[in-house]
Specification:
eleven-stranded mixed beta sheet, single chain, globular, 14 strands
């Protein structure tokens, strides 16, 4: 697949993770593949032109055959356990996602000169048909953007919602202007954390991809991998992946490193969209008071303000982000379950979970760090992927009863 053909799909929303270079780097540098349970199986849509000449690529869906649920950030471990309790196999499953990347964006890619709605519909139905052919238990689309979320729901997939915390740029002049929008208590806490970081014996560098070399990536990968070593995990992204993406997409990569003396001791890896900064990975070899917050939040908020970016998506989870100016937003995923008995049990669970997530966002929104007199901001109630829709009513499952209590979120 030629990069220019793939990258011509979609409306060029500035979303870096569906770029050909990013997805190819994951494959070529060993981050995905059969050995790690992320088997690339991308779905392509072609159309002949009116003169019946060569087929033309008009649509695509990043797609993987999964043999586990790691690296997805939408937790379905208990779904797999429910399948197992009934003597059935949950894996393999089909997943449309960006591996190891819980950031909402386009998943159903369509050429802007073609019938986008028809192509997106065909991609969804094609994925469902492929799941049936492979005898996969299910098809899942994780963190779709607003338009794709709507299409997936219209095609009959079950909608699941979650919560992340994002920072919104309200047109701040500088970091002090941002602090001025917070309550006095939160301003003091952030200033204290920044003083702690400033007092640490470290210097901080921010580099675009084109300003990095092998030395920086070797240092950063060592930092990144150390986090997984301490947590008994494995670093999903290889050194060669980081270096390859920085070379192929220099304008989209941002690396922030902390140095003590001649040694890099902490860092964070980000991607830059047209209007959004995406924080991805963090690690440290030494603990210094306030350094994590300085690198992962405050320096990057400053970067957004200085470069006119509208928002900062700092990744999954993290109520601790709330006091630092990040507000709760809704995320989404969509799920096709082949077995009708499990489908109805999961439909019932998702309706209850959706209500719980909405209540959670409402509760956390009440603890907003912003002053009541600060400019109005609807980020807390606005969904990242679009407005909420009326859930479908739960139906009783046919055949052998699959009780809804057998399905939970696995958290």
């Amino acid at each position: 697949m030629a990069s220019d053909e793939w990258d011509a799909l979609g409306d060029d929303e500035g979303y870096p993770f569906t770029r050909h270079a990013f997805l190819v780097a994951l494959e070529e540098e060993g981050c995905v593949g059969e050995s790690v349970g992320w088997i690339p199986c991308h779905l392509l849509a072609y159309s002949k032109d009116r003169q019946d000449r060569d087929d033309r690529l008009v649509g695509a869906m990043p797609l993987y055959i999964k043999t586990h649920s790691q690296g997805e950030f939408v937790f379905d471990w208990n779904w797999a356990e429910a399948w197992d309790r009934y003597g059935m196999a949950y894996y393999p499953k089909l997943v449309s996602a960006i591996p190891f990347t819980p950031s909402a964006g386009p998943r159903l890619l369509a050429h802007p000169g073609a019938d986008g709605e028809a192509i997106r519909s065909a991609l969804v139905q094609g994925a469902i048909e492929l799941a049936k052919r492979l005898q996969a238990s299910s098809f899942h689309c994780l963190f779709p953007g607003e338009r794709d979320r709507d299409r997936l729901e219209e095609e009959g997939l079950l909608l699941r919602t979650g919560t992340q915390f994002h920072w919104e740029n309200r047109g701040y002049r500088d970091f002090e202007d941002f602090l001025g929008s917070l309550t006095s208590k939160r301003r003091k806490e952030i200033r204290r954390e920044r003083r702690d970081a400033a007092d640490a014996p470290v210097s901080i560098e921010i580099r675009k991809g084109g300003e990095t070399d092998e030395t920086h990536w070797r240092a950063y990968h060592s930092i990144y991998a150390s986090t997984y070593d301490r947590k008994w995990g494995y670093p999903a992204l290889s050194l060669s992946f980081f270096a390859s993406v920085a070379k192929a997409m220099p304008e989209r990569v941002l690396l922030i490193l902390a140095r003590r003396g001649d040694r890099y001791i902490a860092g964070a890896h980000c991607f830059v969209g047209d209007d959004t900064l995406f924080g991805r990975n963090w690690g440290c070899l030494e603990e210094h008071r306030g350094l994590h917050f300085e690198i992962c939040y405050y320096r990057l908020i400053e970067y957004c303000i200085e470069h006119g970016l509208d928002r900062f998506d700092a990744g999954a989870q993290g109520e601790h982000k709330l006091m630092r100016g990040f507000l709760p937003v809704e995320t989404a995923s969509a799920h096709y379950i082949d077995d009708p008995r499990f489908r109805e049990a999961i439909r019932d669970f998702l309706e209850r979970e959706r209500q719980q997530q909405a209540a959670y966002r409402e509760l956390t929104s009440r603890h907003s760090p912003f002053r009541a007199s600060a400019p109005a901001d609807d980020a807390a109630s606005r969904a990242v992927t679009g407005t909420k829709k009326q859930a479908r009513s739960s139906k009783s499952a046919g055949g052998r009863k699959m009780p809804s209590r057998s399905i939970s979120n696995g958290r």
